[in-house]
Specification:
Low-confidence stretches: none
Distance between the termini: 37 Å
Structural class: mainly alpha
Shape: globular
Order of helices and strands: HHHHHH
Radius of gyration: 17 Å
Number of strands: 0
Number of domains: 1
Length: 170
Amino acid sequence: MPRRFIHRHQPPHGLSNWAKAALGGLLGLAVVVMLGEWSGVPMLVAPLGASAVLLFGLPDSPLSQPVNLIGGHVIATLLALVLDHVLPQSGWSIAVTVGLVIGVLGALRLTHPPAGADPIVVMMVHPDWSFLVTPVLAGTVTLVLVGLLIHRLPPRSIYPLPIRTVTEET
């Protein structure tokens, strides 16, 4: 097997970084669960767990930034809700929707890989339109708010990343 398939490209980080990431994931999802229990509306969906991995484990990734996390999930869910109403129920519909989500999020520069799971959830569960607000919008905003607090703990992380100009390729 070629070495590039088993080489770990992720740079090493100290144990304290991963302990803080674990704490962030625990607290972020615990707050989401508590809000769901208090409101009587389930707020925990699987894609939020994957978002927590990026948000707390790789806060310096462009894919972990607030606009990507919140915007990615909201747009993916919105597209999925629309297509869930117009496409026939099938695995093909899910595949088409995930592909569309990847293209749209990439074109908008809002890529957030866990948002690719939103169409699968939507098209298997067939929730009503309120799903866009609760759990998706409320859950993602909650995770980002917890992330803002957690990343101020030592070892400090710069989150969100500072604004920098991006040049478009032609």
